[in-house]
Design brief:
Blueprint lengths: L8 E4 L5 H13 L10 E4 L2 H15 L7 E4 L27 H16 L6 H20 L10 H8 L3 H24 L4 H18 L6 E4 L6 H12 L3 E6 L7 H6 L25 H10 L6 E3 L11 H9 L22 E6 L2 H16 L6 E4 L3 H11 L12 E2 L4 H14 L4 H8 L10 H15 L1 E2 L8 H8 L2 H11 L7 E3 H16 L2 H4 L1 H20 L2 E3 H13 L2 E2 L9 E4 L1 H4 L6 E4 L19 H7 L6 H13 L4 E7 L1 E2 L2 E2 L4 H10 L10 H8 L18 H4 L3 E2 H9 L1 H9 L8 E3 L3 H18 L3 H11 L4 H24 L4 E13 L2 E12 L5 E7 L6 H6 L4 H10 L11 E11 L7 E5 L13 H20 L25 H4 L5
Parallel strand pairs: 1-5, 1-6, 2-3, 2-4, 4-5, 7-16, 8-14, 8-15, 10-20, 15-16, 19-22, 23-24
Antiparallel strand pairs: 9-13, 11-12, 17-18, 21-22, 22-23, 24-25
Amino acid sequence: MSEGRGPQIYSIAAHRGFADALVAGLIPRYSEPDVGLARLTLLLPSSRAMRTVQEAFVRASGGGLLMPRMAAVGDLDLDETLGALLDPLGAADIPPAMSPTRRWLRIAELLREEMGPDAPRGAALLRLAQDVARTMDRLLIEDIGPEELQGDHVIEIVGDLAVHWQRSVRLFARVQARWLAELGTIGALDSAARRNRLFDHAARRWRAVPPVTPVVAAGVTSASPALANLLRVVSTLPAGAVILPDLDLAMPAAVWDELGAAGKGVNPGDPPFAESDAVTHPQYHLKLLLNRMGVNREEVQPWHRRGIGAAPPERSHAISNLFLPPEASTAWVGLSADKRRLAGVRLMESDNPEAEAQAIALLIRQAVAAPEKRVALVTPDRALARRVVQHLRRWHIEADDSAGRPLSITAAGRLMLQLAQVAAEQAAPVPLIAALANPLVRFGDARRDWLAALRKFELQLRGPRPEGGLEPLGPMAAQAGVAEWWAPTAAILAPLLEGGELLLADWLDRLAAAGELLAGDALWAREDGRALASLVEDLRLHAREIGTVIAAEDLHVALRDAMEAEAVRPPFGGHPRVSIYGLIESRMARADLVIAAGLNEGTWPARSATDPLLAPAVLRGLGVPGADFRIGLSAHDLAAAMGAPEVVLSRARRDESGPAIASRFLLRVQALLGELRPAHREDRAPALAAAIDDAPAAAPYPRPQPMPDAAQRKVALSVTGLDRLRADPYQFYASSILSLSELDALDADPGPAWQGELAHLILEDWHRTGQPMQALADARLEAMHAHPLTRALWRPRLMKALEWVEMEVAADPQRTPALWEERGRMDYRGVTLHGRIDRLDRLADGSFAVVDYKTGRPPSGAQVEAGYALQLGTLGLMVEGGAFDKLADARATRFEYWSLGRNDKSVTGFGYITTPIKEGNKRSGIAQREFLPQAKVFLDAALDAWILGEAPFTARLNPDAPGYATYDQLMRLDEWAGQTE
């Protein structure tokens, strides 16, 4: 090869398998006796591509092989740096790169200064700084300097924009100018700018003194101007070459032209990217790269080697036709069968993401059963990938997701975020218990005792949220019997609750210290811990230098955003023939079966987001590809995946938010194939996935009718339990015989039970002491450590209702409370009856009125008549039976519900009195003289049937009776409720 030759550029078609075909051609072309390929230098897009090519060399060698030297060009999307070959010590005259973290935090401070009082706070400001940094990188990658924002053509475009766009452009220009001035002062460059300088440095050096050993760039598709210039130089080196993935050399010239200008306007002054450009086409970015290299497509040669397991050549023709731009796609009507042949490609639809993951796992399980068969799942949906990994463990197949997991969902990342949430929410129950139950806390032998104490503490915390801070939790821990456990735990958490606005570095110090005291070395020991340590150290160093201040309530969100950008990749100890890739990681990879999953709009391709700072028209004017450019990259990733010998294209009809729209790429496949034949439908895997967990049909579950023995039946009967027994015997069985009670949720909303307990306590204090109702209410709320929000929401309503009670009692001086909140007990037919009377009033004639407070709607007369609301009647029987020691020979004549609910006729707007007695114009209820005798009849009937008799405790015996859903799941209501006799 002589110097000054034309560019040596090749393309490996999709059906050939890039990595294996590349290696199959490199070995005979560049290997030398004795030294093999050791003199060859390969420029690859990323370290992940380097690993893929290494594996291809191992497969091709069949034995020992001296491999070429490989250097990563560096992938910005993977946050990778350049290899040592392109960033040598000889480039010392190029300033060092500024840390992205320091830039992010400093830009946030610049935004705060520039925007003044309009600047967002906390995490919102940091997000805006990230947007500014990303926009800067978009311009730097395209070699667009800040001065171009001041160009006449850009100013004209900005003048025609909406006011908010004008403001954002000016804000961006000011912040960028200040940032670049700071960089110049300290002698540093942004990473993207330094990368361009290094590319230019390598291009000049190799142009002046070509390397004596061959240099080949393979798989690089980035079209940045600096990298395109370097690739041009490599292609003209005496022993150099550039090998592109899947450049369509068979595409007709007219179709190639229809892709658009692609960075090269037809006439002088034309914008580099016209609005009519087909930027979503998978070949568009390759056309842009060739244009920037100054190479015609006709100069590109086909790579004539095939990879292991290549697909038939017709596949590439079909893929080319599949992605034809709009006007050219009219040719589909006349396409011959060989031009649309997609043999080996199957389409699979599942009902939902879970079913899709199960079906994919089955396909993988089936594939690995074949000897030496490799299978790869390619999907941008990380949640779907994680589901598949879990399903594969059913068959003891460990699959590594090479795209990794966000640091925020790992155990170490979650612990740090949970502690940040404890600080933000002042030790609210949910984040507090979540942090203390993290799997890393007390990892090892001490965890069993730790969890035992934590569970006792959690039971005590259930219910409405207490007041913020650690102080209210001490008495609760003592009540739970874990005071000795809580004291050192509270000491660990205390520093997190002492801050308001602090330096971010100080917050990180406190979080790391608390995490270490709770988890010890386990916090940092694994790959997620190491990633967390790196993030914390990086953030802490630069946040202290910048002086970034953040409030406690913003800490959790800010850290979560930072962790979302950090991918924790596995140590690659999974199945050797199963790979799971994201779109970036899948480039250059190949398998015998490729499953392209998540093919729905918004996932593959992802939603194209408009740059929040620079309007699309401004970006086009500057020569920056628009947001839709990434759709073309996604299309190219799919085209590469479809080059495998066997391909399954998968989607779910629904996602978490509802019905999902099929990907535009999948719709094209369906349109190209026409009516799907069985060979192109993958129906078996979804059917097996739907059946894999199905057991033989079980017999219909009967309505539960427990039959405890006589000793188990004879339990004490409360006045409220009698109502439950008659309405739904099974609920009585579960609560009073099995002693099962419902647990409140953590941080539960204040429900009727909580409101009723609070009202009863306040009224009890008022009757006993006669002190002002408001003071007593404040004292009780304080003693309950109620959250301030709870106080603000419930106190006004509660006070209005209690004021009504106070007024009603004072309005009738001849009626005086004799008992309040008194517990009574009596023996009746060998069964203990017990209950608490809310209030018993002595009337003028010496008889008594039984009063029951209700925070909601009292029972109706019809319910009392049917025997489902006997509380007042049973209490009356207990009063007359001497159940209350303070009264003997008492006679109950009135029975009243005092409701604290809303009442427009009340002076305070709350409170009214109803009675189950049928009097006046009432159409339902029981007559006064018959009320207690009828209550006794209902009581005797219940005792005869269930407590002293042998009747089954049938579930929902009276479906129309009022009740709660507490035990519906225990009685398996949904399995038998719809059955007919």
